[in-house]
Design a protein that fits this description.
The protein is an alpha+beta fold. It has 22 helices and 13 strands. The structure holds flavin-adenine dinucleotide.
């Protein structure tokens, strides 16, 4: 992938009109499809590579290149092709996957509607079964049901996976996915379909997002993607999952690859931005103690503080993402995509997607500012990467919504774990755990400021564990009080949303630190010292950010918070000699980085 993206055919072109940019991205997509990259995850029987891990690696690598190409690739092969593969059965695979993989059949994934983006369970597009004609009738009943934001819809898509509410003879069966043509072979709009361009966006303008309306469009019965629910010719419905809620969430679960992919690609975009900023910072000089002796801006503590914790966090997320990808691939390849481990992968994917994309957005802003005015020039790429990755916080699941799912999962596990003990048992247990940990952290430890202690990985991980457990326990208690005071489950959750988000973040960060430690232990011996420092800076920067909470809960005393701050400074200084090597280790070739300011001899 890296070799390919370095070729002149993938060279960046700045300042194109939206129409020209969309065509360039489509041409690039064709090139990748021609090289067999889009179908890497599809079965070999249908021209694919049969290797989901390879597909994810391709996507991750693409993320350092143009984000519009990355997203267009994701829509065509990941969302459109992936949903045919995951939600369809043999007949759909045989008929479509080869053409999806070669881009002979460009398509869309049409789930979101104007009225419902995050809450897709309430989408309103209708699919009525007509047994006489053995067809489904796809219909947009009102304006809020129009399909919104659909990638590939405005210009190139011919077929769409459309999510709609299935009804048979007046009986409702919930949301299902259907293959609905939107354009003819020659590019004309399909009868009964209306398409509108979504227009200019704040980024990703090489992707043709559009809106779709369906006016009683008839499709054959076979166009229902029927892995989780089928309809006979006579209109009898059956599903391997009896419970409609479970069925719906199982269907959504097949999309976990999309979330992992977005996190991988966002992380690659950030790495590109950090590599540009660090390399520029190492050569750009401003000010000095005497005239004519200016200092590289990367030597300034403020510069290091803006970039190095971000690099350390990117490394941390790398280990967490690699571990998650390994578990995801193992679950898919062993056919265990319906069991408990897969549910955990799904939740971990949601949490990491949220934190990784937020980190990308913040990190690219810092990288842009660290490059001064040069960072704002299009040819230096960071401004574009920042604009394009902004929306990763929203699509493939809004981050704020995803983190609530993570927190709810943690609370549910808790409840299940202590079901037998009952609520009082849980509270007793929580009290014991919390006080046991607190006893270890307090009061002597809260005051300890010596370096040995602050640099001890067990201390750092211990604090993150304590924070998570305490937030879990207090969230559970807070919810219980609300419910006892008469609130319903929904109302109680809303009153505790701030708490749930803090809990989810604490959980993801604790797990990420654990993965980082494991990754460091398993790394080549020569790499361990520098990885150890990065792991430490990641942990310390979380403690520094959370000092308010830690002080408020007696985990830290003032002197300790100050000592942590001083140690972050020291850690940054220690990493300075390694900074360029650390971003070069991201392995992004110069042609893909693209930015003149990142090259040797930059001004
Ligand atoms: C560029 C782009 C490309 C896209 N491509 C596709 C595509 O190809 N196919 C497709 O189907 N969809 C696509 N989408 C849609 C995308 O998935 C949705 O935008 C996303 O799910 C969020 O939905 P929404 O925009 O309606 O926001 P909303 O759900 O309305 O959210 C708005 C705000 O409300 C907050 N919010 C919502 N619910 C809660 C809650 N329970 N608690 C607290 N806060 C809440 C959110 O955090 C957010 O800040 C795309 C979107 C964009 C912007």
């Amino acid at each position: 992938m890296r070799k390919r993206l370095r070729e002149p055919r993938f060279a960046y072109r700045h300042g194109l009109s939206t129409a020209a940019y969309r065509e360039l991205v489509f041409d690039w997509l064709r090139e990748l499809a021609r090289d067999g990259l889009g179908s890497a995850a599809f079965p070999r029987a249908y021209g694919g590579g049969g290797n989901i891990a390879r597909f994810l690696a391709i996507f991750e690598t693409l993320g350092a290149h143009d984000q519009s190409l990355t997203v267009k690739f994701g829509v065509q092969f990941g969302l459109f092709g992936g949903s045919i593969y995951q939600l369809g059965t043999e007949r759909h695979h045989a008929r479509y996957l080869r053409d999806v993989g070669t881009l002979a059949l460009p398509g869309c994934f049409a789930m979101s509607e104007l009225g419902h983006g995050s809450n897709v369970r309430e989408i309103e597009t209708e699919a009525h079964y007509d047994p006489a004609a053995r067809q489904f009738i796809i219909d947009t009943p009102n304006e809020s049901a129009r399909k919104e934001w659909i990638g590939n819809a405005a210009c190139h898509g011919r077929l769409a996976v459309v999510f709609a509410r299935l009804s048979i003879g007046g009986e409702q069966h919930g949301v299902h996915a259907f293959l609905v043509p939107i354009r003819t072979q020659t590019g004309g709009v399909w009868p009964g379909v209306r398409i509108e361009d979504a227009g200019e966006k704040g980024g990703l303008n090489g992707v043709d997002n559009g809106r779709l309306w369906f006016d009683r469009v008839r499709i054959p019965r076979e166009n229902l993607l029927n892995r989780y629910g089928d309809v006979t010719e006579d209109g009898d419905y059956s599903s391997p999952i009896a419970n409609p809620t479970r069925r719906f969430f199982t269907m959504l679960g097949t999309l976990v690859a999309g979330r992992i992919s977005v996190a991988l690609a966002a992380q690659s975009a950030l790495k590109a931005g950090l590599a540009i900023a660090v390399r520029y910072g190492a050569s750009r000089k401003q000010f000095g103690s005497s005239e004519g002796h200016e200092v590289p801006i990367l030597d300034y503590l403020t510069h290091q503080r803006r970039l190095f914790p971000a690099i350390a966090t990117a490394y941390a997320f790398d280990f967490a993402l690699k571990s998650l990808v390994g578990r995801f691939v193992a679950a898919i390849e062993s056919g265990h995509d319906a069991d408990a481990e897969y549910r955990r992968v799904e939740a971990d994917g949601a949490g990491l997607k949220a934190l990784v994309t937020w980190h990308t957005i913040g990190g690219l802003q810092a990288a842009r500012e660290c490059c001064g005015g040069q960072g704002f020039l299009a040819i230096n790429r960071i401004a574009q990467l920042r604009a394009d990755t902004d929306v990763t916080a929203t699509f493939e699941g809004d981050n704020t919504v995803l983190l609530q799912l993570v927190a709810k999962g943690l609370l549910t596990d808790y409840r299940q774990q202590f079901h037998a003990a009952g609520a009082r048992g849980i509270l007793r247990y929580l009290g014991r755990r919390a006080s046991a940990r607190l006893a270890r952290v307090n009061p002597v430890l809260a005051r300890r400021t010596d370096e040995d202690h602050l640099r001890d990985p067990d201390f750092q991980l211990g604090v993150l564990r304590y924070r998570e457990e305490r937030l879990l326990g207090s969230a559970a208690r807070r919810l219980k009080h609300r419910i006892e005071a008469g609130a319903d489950g929904f109302g109680a959750l809303i009153e505790c949303q701030d708490h749930l988000l803090a809990l989810a973040r604490a959980h993801v960060e604790r797990r990420t630190l654990e993965e980082f430690a494991r990754g460091t232990d398993n790394a080549e011996p020569g790499l361990r010292p520098v990885l150890h420092r990065l792991r430490e800076l990641f942990a310390l920067s979380v403690l520094e950010r959370e000092e308010g909470w830690l002080l408020a809960h007696g985990v830290f005393e003032g002197a300790k918070a100050e000592a942590v701050r001083a140690l972050v400074n020291q850690s940054c200084r220690e990493l300075r000699p390694h900074a360029v090597a650390l971003v070069n280790a991201f392995g992004i070739p110069d042609e893909i980085l693209g930015a003149p300011i990142a090259m040797a001899g930059a001004p």
